[in-house]
Amino acid sequence: QVQPVESGGGLVQAGASLRLSCAASGRTFSWYDMSWFRQAPGKEREFVAAITWNSGSTYFVDSVKGRFTISRDNHKNTVYLQMNSLKPEDTAVYYCAARWRGSYSTSNDSSSYGYWGQGTQVTVSS
Prior knowledge:
The protein has strands at residues 3-7, 10-13, 18-25, 32-39, 46-51, 58-60, 68-73, 78-83, 92-100, 115-116, 120-125. The strands form two sheets. Strands 2, 4, 5, 6, 9, 10 and 11 form a seven-stranded mixed sheet that branches. It has a four-stranded antiparallel sheet with strand order 1-3-8-7, with no helix packed on it. The protein is globular and about 40 Å long. It contains no helices and eleven strands. With 126 residues, the chain is mainly beta.
């Protein structure tokens, strides 16, 4: 099992950058695919980005392609979300999620993730 804990959120102006971190406890972190989701006020939770257990593949929602990157360090049990050129519409609570690497579901299927962090707030002012 893994228990994700997010950090790195904050208040920034449009155009700025932030890097979110997700540290996951557990000795088997490298066996899990990791993703970031976000939820804005009054909206449903939305897939943002995913990275496979071995960093072999990454996936992004169209609205962040070219601006966000996802990476992981299995030695540090940490996954990162680098967010550049932030926009006010990126404002949301960002959640880190983990699922077993053998899942056949698509990366953006939130129901396939069994482990979730508490979230970190990202606010982008215009």
